[in-house]
Amino acid sequence: MSQMQENKLSTFDISGFQGDLIGWYSNEKRDLPWRLNRDPYRVWISEIMLQQTRVDTVIPFYNRFMEKFPTIQALADADEQEVLKAWEGLGYYSRARNLQTAAREVVALHEGKMPSVPKLLGALKGIGPYTKGAILSIAFGQPEPAVDGNVMRVLSRILEIDEDIALPKTRKTFEALVRALISHEDPSSFNQGLMELGALICTPQSPMCLFCPVQQHCRAFHTGRQLELPVKSKAKKKKTIRYAALLIHNSDGKVLIEKRPQTGLLAGLWQFPMIEMGVKGETLEGKAAKELGIGLEVGDKAGVLKHVFTHLIWEIDIFNAITTVAEPASERMRFVTMEEMEERPFPVSHQKMMPYLSREQ
DNA sequence: GAGACGTGGGG
DNA sequence: TCCCCAAGTCT
C-alpha cells in the first residue's frame, strides 16, 4: 500500500465504519433468492450471473437455472447447448460455458464440492479475483476482499482515492484497502454491505448521501467531492458492421440456421445466416450462394435491425429467401422447423428477426 | 495492458 | 438518439 493510502487509513475509524456498514446491511439488505442460505454452489451461480448484470435481470434467470441444474453434478452432466439455452438472453455467454467447465473440474478434482482454498477456487474457469473473494467471504466466511465496481466507487468516495478505476491495476489498490478495513467477525456482511451500499445509496449518478449510513466516515461527502469520484476514464467508440441476414425457407417449410463458432462473439449460439455487406462488391444473392454453398432466390427486404454490443454495432438488413436445396452443404448448418428452432439457444439479435419469418410455405 | 465479450434500463 | 452503465474474466 502506498504512503498516501496508509496516511488516509491512519486517521480512519475502522471499527466504527465496520459497525455502521454491517448494521445498515443487516437491517436494509434486499431479500434475494441467493441469500436464502450460504450454499457455495448457489453463491457461485449468483456471482457469475451478477457479473456486469443487474440484480433485477438476474433474478428470473437464477431461479430457472437453479431449478434446472440444482447441483454441481447436474450442471456437470448437462449438455452444453442445454446450459446455453438456460443462459439465452443473459449475455456474456462465455460465462455459461466456463461455468460448466468449472463444474466438471469440481467433480473431477474436488469430489463435487466447491473448494474453500483460495488458490484452488481461483484456478477454476471463470472465477477471477472478484468472484473468488465473493465466494470465500460469503459462502466460507473468510476475510478476503471482493472488489467490484461498487466497492471501488464506494471506497473511492469514502477515502477520497483519485486512481482511475477503469485501469486494471487499480483493483489491487482497493484489495489492499479492503484487507485493512474488512471485518474479521463478519466478512460476508462487510463485503456485501459495501456492494449493497453501492447499489442502493452510493450510486454512480446521484448518490443519496443524506440517507447514507456511513456519511460521517465519508471524506468525499465532507469535502463535497462525491460527484467527482470515482475517477473513471471513458470508453472508446464502437465500430459498426453491416450485415444482410437471410431467412431461407426450403420446400419442406423449414428454415436454415447455423451454429456460430465455439469461440468469440456469441460462441456456440445459433443464428440465421448473415452476409457481411462491405463497400459494394457482388450482389447479395451471389455472395450468399458462395458463402453458404446453396443457390437461393432472395426476396424484398423484410426489415432492418440495429443491435448494440459493448464494443460494436450490427446494422442488419433482413431478407426472406427461398431455396430448392433440401440439405445444407455445411455440418454446422441445419434446416429446422419452428419447434426445433425453439430448442436451440439464439442471441437476442436473432430472436428479434423471428417475427419476420415468412408465414407461407 | 488493451480489447473482446451481451443485454436492457435509465437519464 | 446517445451515453453510461451493472456484483468481471479471459486472452
UniProtKB/TrEMBL annotation:
Q: Which InterPro entries match?
A: A/G_AdeGlyc_MutY, DNA_glycosylase, HhH-GPD_domain, HhH_base_excis_C, MIG/MutY, MutY_C, NUDIX_hydrolase-like_dom_sf
The record places domain HhH-GPD at 49-200
Keywords from the named record: 4Fe-4S, DNA damage, DNA repair, Glycosidase, Hydrolase, Iron, Iron-sulfur, Metal-binding
Cofactor(s) listed in the protein's UniProt record: [4Fe-4S] cluster
Q: Does the keyword tRNA-binding apply?
A: no
Q: What is its EC number?
A: 3.2.2.31
Q: Where is the signal peptide?
A: none
Query: Where does this protein have coiled-coil stretches?
Result: none
Catalysed reactions listed for this entry: Hydrolyzes free adenine bases from 7,8-dihydro-8-oxoguanine:adenine mismatched double-stranded DNA, leaving an apurinic site
- How does the cofactor bind to this protein, according to its record? Binds 1 [4Fe-4S] cluster.
Gene3D superfamilies the record matches? Helix-hairpin-Helix base-excision DNA repair enzymes (C-terminal), Hypothetical protein, domain 2, Nucleoside Triphosphate Pyrophosphohydrolase
The record's annotation in SUPFAM superfamilies points to: DNA-glycosylase, Nudix
Q: Which PANTHER family match?
A: ADENINE DNA GLYCOSYLASE
Function according to Swiss-Prot or TrEMBL: Adenine glycosylase active on G-A mispairs.
Family, similarity comment: Belongs to the Nth/MutY family.
Entry protein name: Adenine DNA glycosylase
Its taxonomic placement starts with: Bacteria, Bacillati, Bacillota, Bacilli, Bacillales
Name the encoding gene, please.
mutY
